[in-house]
Design brief:
Strand content: under 5%
Order of helices and strands: HHH
Number of strands: 0
Helix content: over 70%
Number of domains: 1
Radius of gyration: 19 Å
Shape: rod-shaped
Distance between the termini: 22 Å
């Protein structure tokens, strides 16, 4: 897998994670259906937030690592490679 495809995949994971976090917050604060479900509704909203964070945070760290690595490779002179 090339770096460009990997970066695109990681960005998609970040976006999906942010959407899941927003969905969990929406369920928790604004959805009457989830409120009517009681404890099961709280578990559903908490799982959305948990999976969203699991998708978004580690991929952000890895994506930052890849971008920093790419920048340092660009800054090296040709003789050092």
């Amino acid at each position: 897998m090339t770096d460009e495809k990997l970066i695109l995949l990681l960005k998609c994971c970040i976006a999906l994670g942010l959407v899941l976090i927003a969905l969990g917050i929406y369920f928790h604060n604004f959805s009457e259906m989830v409120e009517a479900m009681g404890v099961k509704g709280i578990i559903i909203s908490a799982m959305c937030v948990a999976f969203g964070m699991a998708l978004s945070l580690p991929t952000k760290m890895y994506l930052t690592f890849l971008l920093v690595k790419r920048e340092t490779e660009k800054e090296k002179p040709e003789g050092d490679r």
